[in-house]
């Protein structure tokens, strides 16, 4: 018999979702509560890379790199609808340099103030031989991962068109991208829900709610209700998992379950641009470059645009206050122009931006780059209820962290693990792979079977993977097959998303279900039609509030004129 009391997971990001799936698969009921929405925080605000952590290798975190490379291989195989291999190039100016500084970092001496100062003094840019040394180790740790080994070419022979007056070589290696972590998180939750239904387990996902612990019972209320109002729901959990990421200390304080400071998050901002010259220069490949000031920048292909990041600044406010500053945007534009001076990127070319806070462990000294990027579980207890707080973690290792957390809880509950996710496909992966030609055949077959244009099939498919055949195939009424104005999404598809993906309000749908935040503008008619799916809400207020949020947090404007489809 499964435990009668559910595990309460606070936080519906990717780590909370993966933990929930692990527990449900092994017969443990779960409630998930999030103050905001699914994948609201760092899950949606990362560089969207599935990577082994070449930078972490430099800091001597070989265990983290090995784990990350194993998880990268799993995700490429088990979630091909979301994860694709990408070739990255490191531009290099000189043959030698940076070896002494790299040695200090590898031995972790830079995690002290003195060590960081010494590394800076001895530093200098990484030369070809230093980079080769790191990439050889990266290849060794990733052997069997299914991706090619590194290579080196002269600038101009192959790869992106970086500044040939500045750089002499390009060192190439492979990692992977997950363009839509929000959609991956929803697929993981869908897997948990299916299993819960089959096993007859309780599984709840409550977004826009907050939880408070009172005399051994957790009271759960909507976020717009005060603590003095009657509790909407109550639960006596067997365990509480604090998976709220950079909100972790705030969560413990508000429960209340006071403890020492655990988190010291850093803010990372990113920008999108569709500037044609940069798109051409990048040529669907990626660049990982060291700027003149020693900081690192990713310049990544993102569908028909380019994603550029990231900054790394200490941030002490609540994570929902993180916004890309004008200085950060200008800095990222400058970094691009250092690598690609001929494209002459300008701030005016930036179409959208976003910013999030990494849930890193608190570390008073050292540079932000030297803060450990692994994951840890801090176990405490309040009112006799165990509380496991997840610290750190990154997109690549979300499954592993969920597995580790679940193992700790299963042991505590005297439940034997019966199911592993190490070889478990993510819903929507059937029929898809890393073979682009085979995937194109799949999309074409769906288009033929459902009667929708290939552009519509692929727009929906990027969100739900191979499940698109089932969803679009079920849309038989003409009104449900009509496209929402300004998008490639049929109305029936949008309705399916709302009814099955825990959508509570218009902002959830726009930002984290349909993924409409990476273009410069969103037609007002699109917002209004999407708002019509929420008949109980005030349309004018919803459109206004979402428009203001898009402008502030993404730099996206709402335009009155209907332009090309944004999906």
TrEMBL record:
Citing just one GO molecular function, the answer is: glycerol-3-phosphate dehydrogenase (quinone) activity
Biological process (GO) annotations held by this record are: glycerol-3-phosphate catabolic process
Cofactor(s) needed: FAD
The top EC class is oxidoreductase
- The positions making up the signal sequence are none
The UniProt record lists the FAD dependent oxidoreductase domain at 7-364
Taxonomically, the superkingdom here is Bacteria
Keyword annotations for this protein, in alphabetical order, are: FAD, Flavoprotein, Oxidoreductase
UniProt keyword NAD present: no
Q: Which residues form a coiled coil?
A: none
Q: Name one Pfam family in it.
A: DAO
Q: Record's family? A: Belongs to the FAD-dependent glycerol-3-phosphate dehydrogenase family.
This chain's protein is named: Aerobic glycerol-3-phosphate dehydrogenase
Q: Give the species this sequence originates from.
A: Caulifigura coniformis
Gene name per UniProt: glpD
């Amino acid at each position: 018999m499964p435990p009668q009391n559910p595990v309460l997971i606070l936080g519906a990001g990717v780590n909370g979702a993966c933990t929930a799936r692990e527990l449900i698969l092994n017969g443990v009921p779960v409630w998930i509560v999030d103050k905001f929405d699914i994948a609201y925080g760092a899950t949606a605000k990362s560089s969207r890379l599935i990577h082994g952590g070449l930078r972490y290798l430099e800091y001597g975190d070989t265990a983290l790199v090995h784990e990350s490379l194993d998880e990268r291989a799993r995700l490429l195989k088990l979630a091909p609808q979301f994860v694709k291999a990408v070739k990255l190039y490191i531009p290099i100016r000189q043959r030698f340099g940076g070896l002494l500084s790299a040695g200090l970092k590898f031995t972790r001496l830079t995690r002290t103030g003195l060590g960081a100062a010494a590394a800076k003094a001895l530093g200098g840019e990484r030369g070809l031989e230093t980079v080769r040394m790191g990439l050889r180790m990266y290849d060794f740790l990733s052997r069997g991962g299914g991706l090619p080994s590194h290579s080196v070419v002269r600038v101009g022979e192959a790869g992106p068109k970086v500044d040939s007056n500045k750089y002499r070589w390009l060192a190439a290696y492979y990692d992977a991208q997950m363009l839509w972590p929000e959609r991956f998180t929803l697929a993981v939750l869908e897997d948990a829900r299916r299993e819960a239904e089959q096993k007859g387990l309780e599984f709840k996902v409550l977004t826009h709610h907050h939880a408070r612990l009172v005399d051994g019972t957790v009271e759960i209320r909507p976020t717009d209700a005060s603590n003095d109002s009657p509790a909407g729901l109550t639960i006596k959990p067997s365990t509480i998992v604090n998976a709220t990421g950079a909100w972790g200390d705030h969560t413990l304080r508000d429960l209340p379950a006071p403890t020492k400071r655990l988190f010291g998050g850093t803010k990372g901002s990113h920008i999108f641009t569709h500037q044609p010259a940069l798109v051409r220069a990048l040529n669907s490949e990626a660049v990982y470059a060291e700027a003149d000031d020693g900081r690192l920048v990713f310049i990544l292909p993102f569908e028909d645009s380019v994603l550029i990041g990231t900054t790394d600044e200490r941030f002490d406010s609540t994570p929902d206050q993180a916004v890309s500053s004008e200085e950060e945007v200008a800095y990222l534009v400058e970094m691009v122009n250092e690598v690609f001076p001929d494209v002459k990127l300008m701030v005016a070319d930036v179409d959208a931006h976003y910013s999030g806070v990494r849930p890193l462990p608190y570390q008073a000294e050292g540079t932000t780059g030297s803060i450990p990027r692994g994951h840890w579980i801090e176990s405490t207890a309040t009112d006799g209820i165990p509380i496991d707080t997840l610290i750190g973690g990154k997109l690549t290792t979300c499954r592993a962290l969920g597995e580790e957390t679940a193992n700790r809880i299963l042991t505590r509950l005297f439940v034997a693990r019966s199911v592993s996710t190490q070889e478990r496909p993510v819903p929507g992966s059937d029929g898809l792979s890393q073979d682009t030609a085979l995937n194109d055949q799949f999309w074409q077959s769906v288009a033929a079977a459902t009667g929708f244009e290939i552009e519509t099939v692929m727009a929906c498919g990027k969100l739900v993977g191979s499940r698109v055949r089932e969803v679009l195939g079920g849309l038989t009424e003409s009104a449900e097959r009509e496209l929402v104005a300004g998008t490639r999404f049929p109305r029936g598809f949008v309705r399916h998303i709302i009814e099955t993906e825990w959508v509570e309000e218009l902002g959830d749908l726009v930002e984290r279900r349909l993924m409409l935040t990476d273009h410069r503008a969103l037609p007002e008619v699109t917002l209004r039609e999407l708002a019509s799916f929420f008949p109980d809400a005030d349309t004018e207020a919803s459109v206004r509030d979402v428009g203001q949020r898009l402008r502030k947090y993404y730099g996206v404007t709402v335009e009155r004129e209907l332009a090309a489809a944004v999906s």
